[in-house]
Amino acid sequence: MASSTVWWLIAGAAIVLELLSGTVYLLLLSAGFAAAAVAAHAGAAMSTQLVVAAIVGVGATRRLSAVKWGVAGRIVWAWILTIPAAAFVAAVSYWVVSSLHKLLS
User: Fold this and answer.
1) Residues 10-31: tens digit of each pLDDT
2) Of 6, 43, 98, 99, which is most buried with the most CB atoms under 10 A?
Protein backbone atom coordinates (compact mmCIF):
# COMPACT_ATOMS: atom_id res chain seq x y z
CA MET A 1 0.00 0.00 0.00
CA ALA A 2 1.34 3.41 -0.95
CA SER A 3 2.30 5.78 1.85
CA SER A 4 -0.13 8.41 0.57
CA THR A 5 -2.97 5.89 0.95
CA VAL A 6 -1.95 5.26 4.55
CA TRP A 7 -1.95 8.99 5.28
CA TRP A 8 -5.41 9.38 3.71
CA LEU A 9 -6.71 6.47 5.82
CA ILE A 10 -5.28 8.01 8.99
CA ALA A 11 -6.85 11.37 8.10
CA GLY A 12 -10.20 9.68 7.47
CA ALA A 13 -9.99 7.78 10.76
CA ALA A 14 -9.26 11.03 12.61
CA ILE A 15 -12.32 12.63 11.02
CA VAL A 16 -14.52 9.67 11.98
CA LEU A 17 -13.21 9.78 15.55
CA GLU A 18 -13.88 13.52 15.65
CA LEU A 19 -17.45 12.95 14.52
CA LEU A 20 -17.96 10.31 17.19
CA SER A 21 -16.29 12.22 20.02
CA GLY A 22 -17.08 15.81 19.08
CA THR A 23 -13.54 17.09 19.77
CA VAL A 24 -12.40 19.58 17.19
CA TYR A 25 -8.72 18.78 17.78
CA LEU A 26 -8.96 15.52 15.87
CA LEU A 27 -10.40 17.40 12.91
CA LEU A 28 -7.52 19.86 13.02
CA LEU A 29 -4.98 17.04 13.26
CA SER A 30 -6.54 15.44 10.19
CA ALA A 31 -5.42 18.55 8.28
CA GLY A 32 -1.85 17.60 9.17
CA PHE A 33 -2.42 14.02 8.03
CA ALA A 34 -3.90 15.29 4.76
CA ALA A 35 -0.87 17.56 4.26
CA ALA A 36 1.38 14.53 4.74
CA ALA A 37 -0.69 12.65 2.16
CA VAL A 38 -0.19 15.48 -0.33
CA ALA A 39 3.55 15.40 0.41
CA ALA A 40 3.51 11.64 -0.22
CA HIS A 41 1.71 12.19 -3.53
CA ALA A 42 4.44 14.66 -4.46
CA GLY A 43 7.00 11.94 -3.85
CA ALA A 44 8.56 13.33 -0.68
CA ALA A 45 10.58 11.09 1.59
CA MET A 46 9.00 9.65 4.72
CA SER A 47 10.94 12.04 6.95
CA THR A 48 9.60 15.00 4.96
CA GLN A 49 6.07 13.61 5.21
CA LEU A 50 6.39 13.36 8.99
CA VAL A 51 7.76 16.90 9.31
CA VAL A 52 4.97 18.30 7.13
CA ALA A 53 2.33 16.43 9.17
CA ALA A 54 3.83 17.73 12.40
CA ILE A 55 4.09 21.35 11.30
CA VAL A 56 0.61 21.57 9.82
CA GLY A 57 -1.11 19.33 12.38
CA VAL A 58 0.30 20.91 15.52
CA GLY A 59 -0.01 24.40 14.10
CA ALA A 60 -3.62 23.78 13.12
CA THR A 61 -4.57 22.67 16.64
CA ARG A 62 -3.60 26.10 17.89
CA ARG A 63 -5.20 27.89 14.92
CA LEU A 64 -4.63 27.71 11.19
CA SER A 65 -2.86 31.07 11.19
CA ALA A 66 -0.40 29.67 13.77
CA VAL A 67 1.07 27.35 11.16
CA LYS A 68 4.44 28.71 10.08
CA TRP A 69 3.76 28.53 6.37
CA GLY A 70 7.18 30.02 5.67
CA VAL A 71 8.80 26.98 7.28
CA ALA A 72 6.55 24.67 5.28
CA GLY A 73 7.47 26.56 2.11
CA ARG A 74 11.18 26.28 2.87
CA ILE A 75 10.76 22.53 3.34
CA VAL A 76 9.11 22.25 -0.06
CA TRP A 77 11.79 24.35 -1.76
CA ALA A 78 14.56 22.40 -0.05
CA TRP A 79 13.02 19.17 -1.26
CA ILE A 80 12.67 20.49 -4.81
CA LEU A 81 16.24 21.84 -4.93
CA THR A 82 17.89 18.76 -3.35
CA ILE A 83 17.70 16.60 -6.47
CA PRO A 84 19.25 19.12 -8.92
CA ALA A 85 21.93 20.06 -6.36
CA ALA A 86 22.81 16.40 -5.81
CA ALA A 87 22.97 15.86 -9.59
CA PHE A 88 25.29 18.86 -9.95
CA VAL A 89 27.62 17.62 -7.20
CA ALA A 90 27.64 14.14 -8.74
CA ALA A 91 28.48 15.55 -12.20
CA VAL A 92 31.34 17.67 -10.86
CA SER A 93 32.67 14.73 -8.85
CA TYR A 94 32.50 12.48 -11.89
CA TRP A 95 34.30 15.07 -14.01
CA VAL A 96 37.08 15.47 -11.43
CA VAL A 97 37.56 11.72 -10.96
CA SER A 98 37.51 10.97 -14.69
CA SER A 99 39.99 13.79 -15.37
CA LEU A 100 42.32 12.46 -12.70
CA HIS A 101 41.95 8.95 -14.07
CA LYS A 102 42.86 10.08 -17.60
CA LEU A 103 45.75 12.12 -16.27
CA LEU A 104 47.19 9.24 -14.25
CA SER A 105 46.61 6.57 -16.94
Assistant:
1) 888 888 888 888 777 777 778 7
2) 6
Residue 59 and residue 31 in contact, taking contact as beta carbons nearer than 8 Å: no
Please give, one letter per residue, the 3-state secondary structure of the chain.
CCHHHHHHHHHHHHHHHHHHHCCHHHHHHHHHHHHHHHHHHCCCCHHHHHHHHHHHHHHHHHCHHHCCHHHHHHHHHHHHHHHHHHHHHHHHHHHHHHHHHHHHC
Into how many domains does the chain fold?
1
How many angstroms separate the CA atoms of 94 and 97, rounded?
5
Range of the domain at 11: 3-104
What would the pLDDT profile of 36-72 be if each residue is shown by its tens digit? 888 887 777 777 777 777 777 777 666 666 667 787 7
- Return d(Cα 90, Cα 96) in angstroms, integer: 10
